[in-house]
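Note to self: keep these together.
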Amino acid sequence: MLDEVDHGLIHALHIDGRAPFSRIAAVLDVSTQTVARRYRRLRDAAGLRVVGLADPAHAAHAQWLVRLTAGPQAAQDLARALARRADTSWVKLASGGTEIVAVVHAATSHALLLHDIPRTAAVTAVSAHHLLHMYLGGPTAWRGRTSTLSPAQRERLEPAFTGPGQALADSDGALLKALQRDGRASLGDLAAATGWAPATVARRLADLRAGGAVFFDVEVDDTLLGVTTQALLWMSVEPAHLDRVASTLAEHHELAFVAATTGPTNLVAQALCPDPASLHRYLTRRLGALETIRSLETAPVMQTVKAVGPAARLPPPGRGPAPGTPRSAR
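Structure:
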């Protein structure tokens, strides 16, 4: 398990993924060497990684949540294939390992959804749900990772930008790709990846962050935060009450993701809980109290094959989950 310094470091990186270790150390009241050492340990033991991403609200492409069902071995193979793609994230095996859920990022919805997904006998069902609005997730991190620092500490870590900010352009592709590999890459490394001068990289990155076009997410093994049970919740809500229900769910500590979608269910969420009993209490007491939720499907998450970044954490075939994947349910 993690101690207070580890929790503080993870929280700090969610506030500013590129904050210097010296500034984080000052806020946590420890040495810079301690922060650097803890970062390396969490990177090696817990899969800690800072990833720079385009804010979906500012991106030019649509996001689709794709559900596929297949036999257990076929599902694992297909999950690996999807995880290797540059246009996917959040690839998960659910429902006993026979269902794959993935987020697909595409300028058009047709390439992967209509042509690239294998149409084999092993795939028994495919459905695609357009993500219409994200209430929780993306730039807004799960509260289980961001409840350590005080308001005063958070304020000291908030990045300060000048100017109105700018939107992403086609010329930012190389910069965004480099940040997806490593959100804490040095200006020199980013300059080498883009062909720009380091000062140009610094200005452009500041402009994109100021405008909200780019944000930084953190990958880490949530079992070390006490999570052993994860589930995707597919809900059908009366349209007139959808915004109110989704906004209410976005305040629930148990949820890390809430979004409105198209399809037979119009609201999806991801629950992170300490154990099955906690998930049961959440479903029956908190969700059960919302009468406008007409139906609920709970799909336990068995393994995360790929998280927010483009680098898939793929376990070798037949060797179980990848390093950093929660052991009991992810």
